[in-house]
Every structure is written in structure tokens, then in C-alpha cells.
Specification:
It is a single chain. By secondary structure, the chain is mainly alpha-helical. It has one helix spanning 2-66. 82% of the residues lie in helices and 0% in strands.
Length: 79
């Protein structure tokens, strides 16, 4: 009787171990996908930051080309 109980217990343990291995494989895949998504987001953020810096530089150049900064000009006469 003890041998039958042990065989059933070992079979259950094997099933539980297999279930844990399957879950671990899914978790591992999810972590890898999230890591790839994080890398892509970081790359896009870097591109956006570069574009904003370039636009600021272009805007400063345009303001300098117009003659002066509008913030430093006196108000128009009708004020």
C-alpha cells in the first residue's frame, strides 16, 4: 500500500514540477518582451529629446535672425 501512495505522490510532484516549469517559461518570455519594449521606448525617447533640442536651437536661430528677442522689446506705443 505504501508503494502505491508513493507512486501517486511522485506522479503529482512531477506534474507540479512540470506546471512550474511551464509557468517559468511564460514568465521568462514576458520578461524578455518587456525588456525589448523598454529598449524601444528608450530609443524613441532619445530621438524625441534630440528633436526637441534641435527645434529649440532652430527657434533661437530664427529669433536671432529676426533682430531681437520679443521679450526684451518695449511695448508698442498704444499701451
Amino acid at each position: 500500500m505504501a508503494a502505491v501512495w508513493r507512486a501517486t505522490t511522485m506522479g503529482e510532484a512531477d506534474e507540479r514540477l512540470m506546471e512550474l516549469e511551464v509557468r517559468l517559461a511564460f514568465i521568462d518570455d514576458t520578461v524578455n518582451e518587456l525588456s525589448s519594449a523598454d529598449a524601444e521606448i528608450a530609443r524613441r525617447l532619445d530621438l524625441l529629446e534630440r528633436a526637441v533640442r534641435q527645434m529649440r536651437s532652430d527657434l533661437s536661430s530664427m529669433r536671432a535672425g529676426l533682430g531681437s528677442d520679443p521679450g526684451t522689446e518695449p511695448p508698442p506705443p498704444h499701451y
